Amino acid sequence: MHTLLQDLRYALRMLANKPGFAIIAVLTLALGIGANTAIFSVIDALVLRPVVYKNPGQLVFLNSQSPQKGVFVGGVSVPDFLEWKQQAKTISGMSLFQFAAFTYSENAGALRVNGMEVSPNLFEVLGETPLMGRFFADGDDRPGNDDVLVVSELFWRGQLGSDPAIVGKVLRVDSKPFTVIGVARAAFDFPSGMLMWKPLALTNAAMSDRNDRSNGAVARMKDGVTIAQANSEMETIGKAIEREHQDTNTGWTVSVSSLENTQSGNLQNPLFILLAAMLFVLLIACLNIASLMTARMTARSKEISLRMAMGASRWRLLRQFLTEGVLLSLLGGIGGILLSVPSLRVLVASLPAGFIGNVQVGLDTRVLLFTMMLSFATGIFFGIVPAWNLNRVQVSAVLKEASAGTTGGKSRLGMQSVLVIAQVALSLVLLSGAGLLIRSFLALRGTDPGFKAQGVLINTQLVLPRDKYTTNEQSVLFFKQLIDRIKTFPGVVAVGGITSLPLAGNSSTKSYAIVGKPSSDAGGRRGAVWNVVTENYFKTMGIQLIRGRELRDSDNSGALHVALINDALAKREFGGTDPIGQRVLLSTRDAQPYEIVGVVGSAKQFSLGQAALPEIFTPYQQSAMQFMYVVVKAEGDPTRLAAPIRAAVRDIDPDQPVGHRTLEQQFDNAISGQKFYALLLGVFAALALILAGVGIYGVLSYLVGQRTREIGIRMALGANSGNVLRNVLGRGFALVGTGLAIGLGVSLGMTRLIGGLLYQVGAADPVTFAAAIFVLAVVALIACWIPALRATKVDPIVALRYE
Predict the structure, then answer these.
(1) Is the pLDDT of residue 547 over 60?
(2) How many CB atoms lie within 10 A of CB 670?
(3) How far is the C-alpha of 321 from the C-alpha of 385, rounded, in Å?
(4) What is the pLDDT confidence band of residue 522, given thresholds at 50, 70 and 90?
(5) What does the DSSP 8-state code read for residue 145?
(6) I need a surface site. Which of 342, 344, 751, 776 has the fewest CB within 10 A?
(7) How is residue 223 annotated by DSSP?
(8) pLDDT for 89-127, tens place per residue?
């Protein structure tokens, strides 16, 4: 302990003697560790933190799937679910759920709340206990008994003022009184972003409709059962149901997937790629500091040699360097923790909408432990690296060099060269990855979505409560009145409505059959996106009518049932023949065929990076729905229509909340994930570029300083400034060229890891790699040029006199 304290005091004195070095090293580390801590906090919250459910490894999602129809993760019908629940032996509990958008009415107005309708045993299956009150019980899902609610702790604190007597109070939801019976913990976030739950009432219609696969299902496997065993049993049950109900279940089976992997799987790769990139930046920073410490060790060669000559062991000196390194790293770690707080705020604020749901992201014990370990590891790293050559130190040679007026040897310079080569290689890896993501983002942004976003205002999805709008006629009347009012507003060009917007990712898929046209699929059905639209929707969105006619106001419930299809479906089903007049049969309750009267252009439904899927559109007056987005094409700025539209909605139904965004914002949201990854990796690459430039400059500056006498002699013997310039630049570009060669090989292997994030750009895109090499070479040239230019200004007389 006495020796350790002695080493610490000595390390503090050495840092105090060189405050500039200490400040630069600590700030460099603080930036790297702070950014790593912020990113790790997000990864810890979304991926690594244990799921809050009891024995989460036993929880699985059950999904219907039909590869023949292109449905690999589909919803569940109530009749199928009931048979699964009755027959499954590997499952101890199974629950049904359906996403819902509730309307909560209060004195300040109406509020849209994300929630779910669930089987009463959902919380029991997930192993959850209430924060207050109770959860649902058997019988709460019977029609007439389903007027009870469970709310999230977040909703209770945010909207209900943390009312301690909330259990038993009545809230007005969907224009109907509901009694709050319990509060769920904020940590309970199933599946993500839910704030309210009510019982799923199983009506006779739902219990007899196998074509309505709009529900989700979660289950708990029995102890000792594996996913493979559960999957095998469910497949067997699914095939038995398929044989018994060939009209509705042909081609449909069941898949079982882990709840843990499903909830975090889509986030793991991008987040871990960002963490790896940030660790690369931290490693480059460590290499830089190691290079600086190596230079300091070289400057202290005489001191080290004297101490060794006086009996100090190499292990004693190594321990001293490790102490200095760890001390620097701990100071950098403390600075990193302080910087991680604002960094985390900025990072969370810049995350794409809906990325983290209700998950609370912050600095906890696990994150702080990660920061401490990271700090200690970096200290060991740049404490060992400069001391690596202690075993090669020849005391007599160093003292001889020192007496001759030099300050170091070739071994130190060789170590610094290796560090610079590593910095250049790692920088090229980051630059290449950032370049690929940026090119991918630009390609994605330039993709034609199939509609014209400029000047279009979107009203948030309007959801009409079933208890208030009990008939199709009432739902149709609401949307008709609203659209007719909006048409009269000044500056409105067109108004339309649709059940699911392009790029919203929530489109409904239906199986269909072309009447009289055999299909290669078993059962004669295929899958297509199905949307209910109003007349003028396509005009509002700027979607081209290719053939036939658009929908009309006369396409009502009493008229011939008609439909439009997009050109993707027309090409798949009819090739070059005319589809007008053909009839399509949707798997809906009425099972009435729709005559195709028009073909429109295809719009991207789920993402810009995915090809447009076949799509069928039916008139809202013939396929009345209780939810719809209303879109408005306006002259000039469409947001000026937000207030009058909001007033029009409240005039028709005061309990109906409404919000607004532009279609351009919808487009930007669709690419926000790719933009975020490209921007963040670009920032990391820029940091790496700066650090690499500083590292190259530092080594060459040190080289010039070491060779002052040699350069003076050369110039005294007739060498001109051009010879000196080429000599120094040649040494610098030898290091850079080696680093680029190594970095190119590593980059070609590592960029394949981000292949899943790329769009229309290959992981080995030559243009991107050429650009990355060029940028790094330019920075290296600047970093080499400054010390090389200084070398040409050496005065031979002064240099020789000094030596």
Answers:
(1) yes
(2) 24
(3) 9
(4) very low
(5) T
(6) 342
(7) T
(8) 999 999 999 888 888 887 767 788 889 999 999 999 999
- Cβ 574 vs Cβ 583: under 8 Å: no
Block residue for tokens 């489109």: 507
Q: Which residues contact 671 (CB under 8 A, 6 or more apart)?
A: 441, 444, 445, 608
The pLDDT assigned to 413 comes to 54
Helix (H) / strand (E) containing 661 = strand 660-662
Question: Percentage of residues in the chain with pLDDT exceeding 70?
Answer: 79
Q: Is 311 exposed, middle or buried (0-12, 13-18, 19+ CB in 10 A)?
A: exposed
Q: What are residue 215's phi and psi, to 5 degrees? A: -105, 160
C-alpha distance from residue 617 to each of 509, 535, 569, 577 (Å): 12, 11, 11, 20
Tens of pLDDT, residue by residue over 7-20, are 667 667 666 666 76
Q: Are 362 and 344 in contact (CB under 8 A)?
A: yes
Selection from 782, 99, 746 nearest residue 427 by Cα:
746
Instruction: Lowest mean pLDDT of 29-38, 683-692, 696-705, 743-752, name the range.
Output: 696-705
Angle of helix 672-706 relative to helix 766-792, nearest 10 degrees, comes to 30
Q: H-type helices in 50-188, by residue range? A: 78-87, 122-126, 153-158
Dist CA 465 CA 711 (whole Å): 86
3-state secondary structure of 456: strand
pLDDT at position 691: 75
Angle between helices 314-350 and 259-299 in degrees, nearest 10: 140
Residue 164 has pLDDT above 80, yes or no: yes
Cβ-in-10-Å burial (0-12, 13-18, 19+) of 4 comes to exposed
Q: For residue 360, how many other CB atoms are within 10 A of its CB?
A: 12
Cα gap 101→388, rounded to integer Å: 63
Regarding predicted confidence, which is higher, 600 or 434? Answer: 600
Question: What pLDDT was estimated at residue 166?
Answer: 93
Helix H, strand E, coil C: the string for 506-550 is CCEEEEEEECCCCCCCHHHCEEEEEEEECCCHHHHHCCCEEEECC
Q: Which of 605-609, 661-665, 683-687 has the highest mean pLDDT?
A: 661-665
CB 335 within 8 A of CB 34: yes
* Amino acid in the structure at residue 669: N
Give the C-alpha separation, 196 to 217, whole Å: 18
- β-bridge pairing 594-600 and 562-566: parallel
Q: Model confidence over 276-318: pLDDT tens digits?
A: 777 777 777 777 777 766 666 665 666 666 666 666 666 666 6
Q: How far apart are the first and last CA of the chain?
A: 43
Count other C-beta atoms under 10 Å from residue 58's C-beta.
23
93/709: higher pLDDT = 93
Residue 496: strand, helix, or coil = strand
* Cβ–Cβ under 8 Å, residues 371 and 37: yes
Contact by Cβ (8 Å): 605, 569: no
pLDDT, position 152: 93
Average the pLDDT over each of 143-157, 409-423, 580-594 and give the range with the smallest value: 409-423
Residue 697 has pLDDT above 80, yes or no: no
* Dihedral of alpha carbons 460, 466, 468, 469, sign: positive
* Residues whose CB falls within 8 Å of the CB of residue 127, separated by 6 or more in sequence, listed in order: 53, 54, 55, 220
Q: Could you tell me which of 452, 471, 479 has the C-alpha nearest to residue 629? A: 479
State the pairing for strand pair 492-498/91-106.
Answer: unpaired
280: its two tokens: 């690369």
Prior bond to 614 cis, omega within 30? no
User: For residue 719, what are its two tokens?
Assistant: 């060498």
Distance CA 367, CA 663 (A): 39
CB atoms within 10 A of CB 262: 16
Type of residue at 744? L
